[in-house]
TrEMBL record:
Phylogenetic lineage: Bacteria, Pseudomonadati, Pseudomonadota, Alphaproteobacteria, Rhodospirillales
Recorded superkingdom: Bacteria
Protein's name according to its UniProt entry: Uncharacterized protein
Length: 573
């Protein structure tokens, strides 16, 4: 299929960035202030986090899609009081009362209200392959829900309990209000439909619906949703519904029609069942997460054979980034997967799970750079890694290992792999207890040969990304041990010729991190190179000119690779 030209600016419209300051109280986030400038909120955040009645604060970047009448948020900074935990790390902030609150049937068309609709009617919607928008705009589907036994009553009871939190209203009275809103909404749909069938979508597509519409301008969007709902009514699967929906896309659609396609696609792709139909059955949770990333970038159902034309169009539009609601829903789904406490790959242990977490990060960087820079996605991955590091899990990792060096290297590998500062800091506490140079030396069996083992470990610790204080402490412990071994086992070894002592330093001390040991080794090599007889005496060991030439260049290369001497000090460097 040839790609269509897409005018991104035309289809998305105006987007405005606003920053919000939220405060956390028990289990609710409240909006405190907003500003177009993040710097104006930072002093207030610093003061708010000190107040005893506040359990936490967060700074949020909000993107307002003005022409779509749609909002997305990304948490940039979050600070919770010690001991405080969120029930739902993705919970929205409320402007004084629950954001899903509604007073009349028209309010049900709001994004947050429809998300709650989806949450409380999820089983019914998936069984019938319906979305909230189709039910709210097409009387046929609304009647089906109304006749579904106690489904509506049960869902509204749960919604009422959620909405009255933080208010003085009872759940019972709120339930009555919600039932009245639902009844009025259905009655309005039925009344408007009498003698007024939905506009049939023909070869002219959505633009034909716009031309055929004769009502008030403010009713055009409802007419479009109603026409599309009727057009999709007999689709047997979510994929078939998506296919039909996006076969309605043509390059000449305006933002008004694109908003209809985008809103319906977002609600379809909020269904895990729809995602499975698109991506196939995942064998592990890791595959599910990677598929969620693929969906976000428009790589729908890769490896599942030829896709229908409408699904290809959806894929193209996602890759072009012109479906803001759908992209926001897919991002939210990915975050839910990342915050889940279920293992990504298996129950094979902490190392396997950490590697899977890193695999997700690598996949994001390669396939979805926008998500790889998303503060909330990165925080979710760091929290996942942080949760893995528990005493029981670390005992299972270290317990079966017998060697002191292997134990330390295993925990160090975990620190090198772990994403984010918090998990690295936790691992550092376990690693510190294993950094005992005498145990390593005893295990190697030779104090001089152990220098290389100690130096490799010190270098890895310095480069590990662990917090500066514990990293410095462990590096200094190893540095002191290496310094003493160089001094006593090499330099003070009078049984070893001078040239051999220098060669041993080159062989064992290459790549040492900054410290006393590295300085001592570097000083010894520098002094040796300043003594002309050192290289001459060394080369006398080799019988012929060719052997001496090869040995000379090999020595120069070894010294350069050690990183302990400057190139200018080598006679032919």
């Amino acid at each position: 299929m040839e790609p269509w030209p897409v005018d991104k600016q035309k289809l998305i419209g105006t987007v405005q960035t606003v920053y919000e300051l939220h405060s956390f109280h028990t289990d609710l986030w409240l909006v405190v202030r907003e500003s177009p400038d993040l710097r104006q909120l930072e002093p207030s955040a610093a003061m708010l986090v000190q107040r005893n009645e506040v359990d936490g604060i967060r700074l949020v970047r909000r993107s307002d899609y003005k022409d779509h009448e749609f909002v997305t948020t990304v948490t940039m900074v979050k600070r919770l009081r010690n001991g405080v935990q969120e029930v739902d790390p993705l919970a929205r902030a409320n402007p004084g009362r629950d954001a899903s609150w509604c007073d009349k049937p028209e309010d049900l068309m709001g994004d947050i209200q429809r998300q709650m609709f989806r949450t409380f009617f999820i089983k019914f919607l998936d069984e019938k392959r319906l979305t909230p928008l189709e039910i709210l705009n097409y009387e046929v589907h609304a009647r089906v829900l109304d006749q579904a036994g106690t489904t509506v009553q049960g869902a509204l009871q749960r919604l009422a309990s959620v909405q009255v939190r933080g208010t003085k209203q009872t759940a019972v009275s709120r339930m009555k209000e919600l039932m009245n809103i639902a009844d009025n909404g259905l009655a309005t749909l039925v009344k408007e439909s009498k003698g007024n069938p939905p506009i049939k979508i023909g070869p002219g597509g959505l633009l034909e619906v716009v031309s055929a519409y004769k009502g008030l301008p403010e009713g055009l969007s409802r007419a479009l949703y109603r026409a599309v709902a009727a057009h999709l009514a007999d689709a047997k699967s979510w994929v078939e519904k998506l296919d039909r929906l996006f076969q309605l896309f043509t390059p000449d659609l305006s933002l008004r029609e694109m908003r209809v396609l985008d809103s319906l696609a977002a609600e379809i792709l909020a269904s895990p069942l729809a995602l499975k139909e698109l991506a196939g059955q995942e064998k592990t949770r890791l595959e599910l997460v990677l598929n969620a990333v693929d969906l976000y970038v428009g790589n729908l159902g890769s490896g599942q054979g030829e896709q229908p034309a409408g699904v290809k169009a959806l894929s193209m539009l996602l890759s072009e980034g012109v479906l803001p609601r759908t992209l926001a829903e897919l991002r939210l789904g990915l975050l839910r997967h990342l915050h889940s406490r279920l293992p990504l790959r298996s129950d094979r242990g902490i190392r396997d799970e950490m590697e899977a977490t890193v695999e997700v990060i690598t996949y994001l960087r390669q396939h979805a750079p926008t998500l790889a820079r998303d503060e909330e996605v990165l925080e979710a991955l760091a929290q996942r890694a942080d949760r893995l590091i528990q005493p029981e899990a670390m005992s299972e990792l270290i317990g079966p290992i017998r060697g002191a060096v292997t134990k330390a290297e295993t925990v160090l590998s975990l620190a090198e792999t772990a994403p984010g500062d918090a998990p690295k800091a936790k691992i550092a506490t376990y690693l510190r207890s294993l950094i005992v140079p005498e145990d390593f030396i005893r295990e190697v069996g030779n104090r001089m040969e152990a220098i290389k083992t100690l130096g490799t470990m010190a270098r890895r610790i310095v480069m590990s990304g662990m917090p500066a204080a514990p990293k410095r402490e462990m590096a200094e412990i190893l540095d002191s041990a290496i310094f003493d071994s160089i001094r006593t086992e090499i330099l003070a070894n009078q049984a070893m010729p001078f040239a051999d002592r220098i060669l041993t330093i080159v062989r064992l001390c290459g790549g040492l991190p900054e410290g006393r040991a590295r300085q001592l080794a570097a000083d010894q090599l520098t002094q040796a190179l300043k003594r002309p007889e050192f290289i001459l005496n060394y080369l006398e060991r080799f019988p012929g000119a060719t052997e001496r030439r090869d040995a000379y260049f090999k020595l120069c290369n070894a010294m350069l690779e050690s990183g302990l001497v400057d190139k200018s000090l080598l006679p032919m460097g």
